[in-house]
Amino acid sequence: MESIKKSIGLCATKTINQNKAMKKLKMLMVTSALSGLMLSSCAIKPLAYEPGIMSEFEGVTQVNENLLSSEKIQLDGWFGPEDILFDRLGNLYSGVHNADFIDGRILKIDSSGKVEEFYNSGSWVSGLHFNKAGNLLALSHRQGLISISPQKEVTVLASSDENGNPFLIPNGLDIADDGMVYFSNTSEESAYTIKYGRKVIMEMRPLGGLYRYNPETKKVKTLIEGTYFGNGVVVSKNQDYLLMAETTKYRVLKYWLVGEKAGEVETFIDNLPGFPNGISIREDGSYWLGFSTKRSEALDKIHPKIGMKKFVYALPEFMQPKAERFGMVMNISMTGEIIETLFDTQGLILSEAGAVKEFNGYLYIGGDVIPYIGKYKLPTTDKP
After folding, report:
1. Is 294 exposed, middle or buried (0-12, 13-18, 19+ CB in 10 A)?
2. Angle separating helix axes 306-314 and 194-203, nearest 10 degrees
3. 307 contacts: CB under 8 Å, gap ≥ 6
4. What is the domain partition of the chain in residue ranges?
5. Which CATH architecture group holds 58-377?
6. How far is residue 325's CA from residue 15's CA, in Å, rounded to a whole number?
7. Which long-range contacts (CB under 8 A, 24 or more apart) does 130-137 make?
8. In the chain, where does DSSP find H-type helix?
9. 281 - beta bridge partners?
10. How far apart are CA 320 and CA 314, in angstroms?
11. Can you name the residues that pair with 365 across neighbouring β-strands?
12. How far is Cα 352 from Cα 277, in angstroms, rounded to an integer?
């Protein structure tokens, strides 16, 4: 019996020691997790931001499911058709990336859907536009503003602004009738990753800018220094101003090019119901505005709270808020009024609609991570 008691005592002592060890291990794990959260929270320096009150989806923004009728144009395993362009023969061009944003191409897709590699960019390419000489101007996340000749000879036009700030996330691009090239750059601090994109959204600090490249002097001029996720760019039909989407401020800015207001910046439309991304022009001078997703009530609530934004950013990725699958495209007048809105509210076909281009009676719709291009047939209108 004595030996049994000793054995029990030894076992009890061993169990107590094991429990103490487990408690220490748990404390170490908790301490390590807290330290990780603190370090991650120190990685951002957010500013407080008070978004406007979200408006209801009603009137010209009344929800519908029109975009569900969109067809899919496949991209051979690539993602993120951020800009869409057509040549005179009807071939489609789009910059794409792989799953982790490390590699990318410019794809050329003919009317039958055949996909070929037009240019191995080695990185995501966002803005695309042909100039009058037939060269394809593009915004490469690796090279900056580049020109690709019909013979596929590549020239780097600009990789940084006049102050040496690099174009690390060049974004929207358009060319005016006089040949001037206008484009945005989301950030000069880092190349794009999902995590860095989340940081830019949370911090709400002005980065990058809006720029003009003069093909005659080969010089870049900064038009707006510091934007809030500067994105899509388009020149007006009358060539008197240009528009740029500011994604994280839910608005579109107007920059005057000529006249008494030349060089001035105004708000074209604000307090939008989603994250505006790409913008393109219609024949009548109105605009198509694409959205990455709708606004998040949770995000709007924490934007004024610096400490809460630090905490949320520091959470493990699986606990981070996810962008809702929500396709939305707006037609906006030349005076900044919403004319019509098209939706896929559950993201069944178009989980995002950040890029939008009209061509031959169809809307071609892409985005940052979607693995195909949507093709939506516009309703025909009988002209008198």
Report:
1. buried
2. 170
3. none
4. 1-39, 58-377
5. 6 Propeller (2.120)
6. 51
7. 130/85, 130/87, 130/175, 131/175, 131/179, 131/181, 131/215, 132/179, 136/85, 136/93, 136/106, 137/173, 137/175, 137/181
8. 2-41, 194-203, 297-302, 306-314
9. 287
10. 9
11. 356, 374
12. 10
Tell me the pLDDT of the chain (384 aa) as tens digits.
Answer: 444 434 434 444 444 555 555 555 444 444 433 334 344 456 899 999 999 999 999 999 999 999 999 999 999 999 999 999 999 999 999 999 999 999 999 999 999 999 999 999 999 999 999 999 999 999 999 999 999 999 999 999 999 999 999 999 999 999 999 999 999 999 999 999 888 999 999 999 999 999 999 999 999 999 999 999 999 999 999 999 999 999 999 999 999 999 999 999 999 999 999 999 999 999 999 999 999 999 999 999 999 999 999 999 999 888 887 889 999 999 999 999 999 999 999 999 999 999 999 999 999 999 999 999 999 999 986 444
The pTM of the full predicted model, rounded to 2 decimals, is: 0.89
Q: Which residue has the tokens 């060049």?
A: 170
User: Residue 22 — φ and ψ, nearest 5°?
Assistant: -65, -40
* Type of residue found at 361: G
Distances 353 to 82, 159, 323, 326 between C-alpha atoms, Å: 9, 28, 13, 8
Tell me the backbone φ, ψ of residue 169, rounded to 5 degrees. Answer: -135, 65
286 touches 310 (CB < 8 A) = no
Q: Which residue has the tokens 């900064």?
A: 222
Residue owning tokens 């870049």: 220
